[in-house]
Fold these 3 entries.
Entry 1:
Amino acid sequence: MSLWMKIGAALLLGAMVVAMLPAARHWLEHGPRGSAAEWLNAAFVLGLVVLFVLLLMLAV
């Protein structure tokens, strides 16, 4: 990819991030709050994913 394509892609990506910031801020302020049980469930699932990836890495 040429230098100008990389610069253009970076500019478009930056513009997209800047355009999405107000919506993301609104979602964070007015979104639903998770309970302790929901956070525990999310941590458990992420832990299982980490263990599965470790298992895959050790199997090679």
Entry 2:
Amino acid sequence: MKQNKTDGNIATIIVTLLVGGLMVFGIIFLKTSVSETSAHHSAMVDSLLTIAIPDTAAPIDILPQQPETISVALPDTIGKDKRPAAAAGYEDGYRSGCEDRINRTPQAGYDESSTFPTPQERQAYAEAYRRGYEHGIKGKAQAPA
């Protein structure tokens, strides 16, 4: 015996109505199961009510004057590189070479000047900077100084 097409449609409609009814019942049940007098809800309301609100209505002359603080580096630490001159030159050159390679701007960040105190250290820095820059611009792995 052949089933009518309407029997399949009726079954689909019934299943759809049952699923929809269960969803509505589930939503209503979940909404009412968490009542407003539950411990979680009252703790949440209490925490919302205890938020501090600043008093901005006080006149400025009543408020205590705070001295302005300025943080300044110690004068003996400004400009001093704690790395050895050759290592610092190589690392700085390599970093500049990599940046110029990535940006496709050769020699844009090239600067081999340094603040080392002696001419020998400045010379060592410049030579190592050239080597590091060459490795960085060519994309070679960083070698130890």
Entry 3:
Amino acid sequence: MKDKLLELVGNHTGILGITPGGYYSLRTGAGRYQIIRMVAIEECGVHFVMYGKPFEEPPTHIDPQELKQTPPLYMPFRWWSLFAMGPQYLMEEPVDPGELADYQRWKKEDGRYWGD
């Protein structure tokens, strides 16, 4: 299983289409939808930033420049936690090196995922 997961994570399309730089909507526990941007993918989990206020309905179009006007919340999650929220692809842009700062800090300092 671990070898298959590594094979999938190493693939450009990630697991089930999750890719670094992708924007996705997630279903929250309150029945609303939140926008995230995937910044890194690892064997055991994913690293994304969450933007702004939740939506009542699943968004079908987003403006990345508008999203980036509010500070994002960095979140390292296990794969199964991400998939439990039903990520829906919206669009993709390359990840800027500056967007990896929280991920790099996580690797050096903590290394734990939400829920660990």
